[in-house]
Specification:
The protein is mainly alpha-helical. It has three helices and two strands; from the N terminus they run ααββα. It has helices at 9-72, 74-81, 123-204, and strands at residues 90-97, 100-107. Strands 1-2 form a two-stranded antiparallel sheet. The two termini are 45 Å apart.
Amino acid sequence: MDATLFPTKGNLMISKSRLALSNQGYELLDKKRNILVREMMLLIDQAKDLQEKIGETFSAAYKALQNANITLGISTVEAISKAIDLEDDIKISVRSIMGVEIPIIAVTDKELKPQFGFTRTNMSLDEAYQKFHKVKQMSLLLAEIENAIYRLAINVKRTQKRANALQNVMIPKYEVLTKSIINALEEKDREEFTRLKMIKSLKDK
């Protein structure tokens, strides 16, 4: 049997302390949840706008690539594409939002320069190259945002679960326990007062 269930002044102090900690913990978790949800909603709006921009830019890039394939020939475009360097300057760091680690993708901001000669190319290929580069940059940013949304959503769920446990289980438990101990101690004090009064009355007789 839990010793804190016995109606003593020591257990009353313990019960009040645990009730106060539970209330404080719930307030902190509720604040954390609200901050995470607000941050997540902002990122969701950003992701939605970015997806639309990526779609528009990708359509323009694909159209330019089709024109390049038609005017230059698919085999020529394929041969030119092999001259493009692989992306190797992507770096990932993290930032913390209320203890949640969010990845940040950083790409070296360097001037976009053609990586192929001009003798066998035309404006359509140049446009396709620029547009697809822009799509790549935006896709990296979208990956960062979507990953952040996923991590925030998981932590919102965990925080909500802990807050619910405090609000629906721990706080009511210690409220009832504190009240029952107070009532038991008050009843004990009344009985003690009555007993002392009876003893005094007997002595007076």
